[in-house]
Amino acid sequence: MKSISFKLDENKVVNTSAWLVSLIQFANNLNFFDVFKSFNLKMKSVNYTNLNRLQTLVTSIAMGYSYTNDINEKLVPDTTASKLLGMGKFPDQSQINRFLNRFDETNIDQLEFIHHTLFMENSLALSSKDPIIVDFDMSGLVAGGRTYELAEKGYFPGKRGEKGYQLSAAFIGSTAETVSMFFDPGNTSCTSRFEDLLKATTFKFKEHLDKDNLIIRADSGYRSFDNIQLLKAAGAKFVVKGFSTQQSRNFAKSVQKHQWQKINIQVHVAEVPTSTDLRIIVCEFIGKDGQIKYSHLLTNIKAEEMNGVELFHFYNKRQTIEAFFKTCKEVYDIKNLRTSKFYGIYGFLWLVFITHNLIILMKSTTFSSSKLQDMDIQTLVKKLGSITVRVIELKDHIEIVLPSLSELVKLFVEALQPKYTQLGFHDLLNTA
């Protein structure tokens, strides 16, 4: 058997992630990080500025790192990526931890402003002439293992009795863009953030609202009399699921057998006459226990725009926001809280929402004529991001040499080559 020996590479070959450097280059071309310069936090800037620290967090999120210690192990050695951001190398984990721990309420307001500014400058939805559908929802984050600031017991599916937080979000399913978010202790009800989500949404989509082209979609947790009145006062169209199952059963009693419309063998819907200015769509379905159950929808969308069957399908498309929360937890790993400080977690989540919109924008522009546009975030971040590539620094530009291992890499190279001049992307088969 042949012996094996190990030695250091004297050629000083530099490696990087093609996914990361392409995203940074895309951000630089947009002047994406310019607005981050307004962020103000008192911390010594001997080697790194607040901008550098924010850039480091954004890049770590874009790479799907689960913990801040991944910065030391995976990001700091990537000097190609850091140089594109004007740094010799990325700051280490300890500096990022101190940075997050110093966040306060003012910094959260600053990050909200950064998100809003970038959204208004780059949003795909804002330029759309189609109706804008914004979903509201809340998802819990469990804080286990140590004392977390302001963590409280609340509703966490499968985690009864645990303490944690509630993340409220407004999200556009058609473009997969984040609109706004709020972060609260675990005992906060979703309805308490409804007005804030509504204000943030209508502020961004004022023109669509004026043209009667904005629709809010929300589940039963948001169905309260006050929230319905807020929606009416805002002038938005809406579809909200009713809260009371008893009320749903009562509505169903008034439906004649021939009035039920078939969705499938297990689901039927019917519209219930009402004296109010809202339409009521009652749904009859077979539950997991095999019993007949009922639910209902409340809407101010006119029948000529959507009938009962269409409203049923329209409401169920709000699964896009549920998929977004899943992406946040499984790809951006927000379930692994980066600090025990409340405002540090809050600020990190704002950076997740900001980074997500950047990735979505790149997918929809740079990859617009490629199959990569239809790929999910997990494939781009986890699979493409994990591919290490060789860097060749030439006088006028940098060449990124990728191994021709898969169809994914070939699609990536093909998508980028016509669009990038400073960075050259090649696969090994083409450069051999």
Automatic annotation (TrEMBL):
Swiss-Prot/TrEMBL keywords: Membrane, Transmembrane, Transmembrane helix
Keyword Transmembrane helix carried by entry: yes
Record-annotated Transposase DDE domain positions? 42-416
According to the record, the segments passing through the membrane are 343-362
Domain of life according to the entry: Bacteria
The protein's name in its UniProt record: Transposase
Native source species: Tissierella simiarum
What lineage is this protein's organism placed in?
Bacteria, Bacillati, Bacillota, Tissierellia, Tissierellales
